[in-house]
Amino acid sequence: MQIEVGECIAPLLYEHDSLAVPGLGTFVSTYKNAAVDHVQRKVQPPALQLQFQSHLQLDDGILVNYIREKYKVSLQDAQQAVAAYVKVALEIIDKREMVTIPKVGRLYRDYEDQLRFLEDATNFNTASYGLPVVQFSPIVRAERIPKVGEGQHGGGRRMEQSARIAGWFQRYFGWVLSLTLIILVAGGYLVFFQNNDSAADNEPPAPASRINISPTQTPPVEWPTDTLSEEDLDTEASTPDPKQQYGIILIGRFGNEGNVKRLVQKIFDEGYEPYTEKQGNLTLVGVQMAYEREEELKQALAKVRKKFDKRARIIKR
User: Fold this and answer.
1) In angstroms, rounded to a whole number, what is the distance separating the alpha carbons of residues 93 and 268?
2) Structure letter (DSSP) for residue 125
3) CA 74 to CA 167: how far, in whole Å?
4) 135 within 8 A of 42, measured Cβ to Cβ
5) Contact 109, 103 (CB under 8 A)
6) Contact 297, 241 (CB under 8 A)
7) How far apart are CA 192 and CA 186, in angstroms?
8) What DSSP state is assigned to residue 14?
């Protein structure tokens, strides 16, 4: 009888806040409040955000006991099934491939040789089970037109104030315009002459040897006659490095972990190997690739700019 260890993980996450897979790591869930996405115009219900901690590899016995009861096998057989599943999963991850856990997510190894986890859209919060994602759109409110006679006193006061302001400008517009022009002319005059005086003060005095000498008497400049011989010229072309190199193309920096996961998923879907690096509160996301010639890296940069972001750039060769 074949024991599907991966399919036993999701049902247990509905009942437990943490679930250990011996030899692989531990899944930990935390409460996530309802969120409003104004860009996609969606309201997400409360959920449990799932994280994977690879350094927590202690066996809590939950998974093994569940397999033993579900498949009616001994404790030793259940432990052997989990160990075999973990061994195969690590072999796949070490090949830079992804391991898919049904209804839970995917595990992979990044450029820094760290285990990363991409969770699926499954909501393990039983309190909000069945609540759908709500699509919303803004309500366009029609402008209210006041009735005849409504608000006449307030409108009359505003019109009276506007009339007084307009009358003041009509009476004193010429004076205001003249004063503005005088200020502009005086300011320009002061700035112009101040700059000229500063330039004259900063001009260095002429040396005594140049006094009473016309400009045409300047001695000619002597250029060195030494030339490089053909032996001094390096005519040998540079030898390319035959070793394979790794390059990193940066796509962007993100503070939202959800945006990071979506972009990493898109990079995988396009057939590239993702690159992530934590810098403070931001996460750098990009594409990492092996190359032998610089032209290969430049061609990859052009494709990444076309598929993801035209501002993508190379940050490591």
Assistant:
1) 14
2) -
3) 98
4) yes
5) no
6) no
7) 10
8) T
* Residue 67: closest CA among 163, 2, 130, 157: 2
**267 φ, ψ to 5°?**
-65, -40
Following CA atoms 74, 75, 78, 79 in sequence, which dihedral angle do they give, to the nearest 10 degrees? Answer: -150
The answer to whether the beta carbons of residues 290 and 243 sit under 8 Å apart is no
The CA distances from residue 84 to 24, 28, 109, in Å, are 11, 23, 20
Tokens 């820094």 label which residue? 112
Q: Which domains does the chain have, with CATH numbers?
A: 6-132 (no CATH), 245-316 (3.30.70.1070)
Q: What's the burial of 12, exposed, middle or buried (CB within 10 Å: 0-12/13-18/19+)? A: middle
From first to last of its 317 residues, what are the pLDDT tens digits of the chain?
789 999 999 999 999 999 999 999 999 999 888 888 878 888 888 888 899 998 887 888 999 999 999 999 999 999 999 999 999 999 999 999 999 999 999 999 988 888 899 999 888 888 887 788 888 777 767 666 666 555 555 556 777 778 888 887 778 888 888 888 899 888 888 887 766 655 555 555 555 545 554 544 444 433 333 433 434 334 343 444 555 787 899 999 898 998 989 999 999 898 889 999 988 889 999 999 888 888 888 888 999 999 899 899 988 77
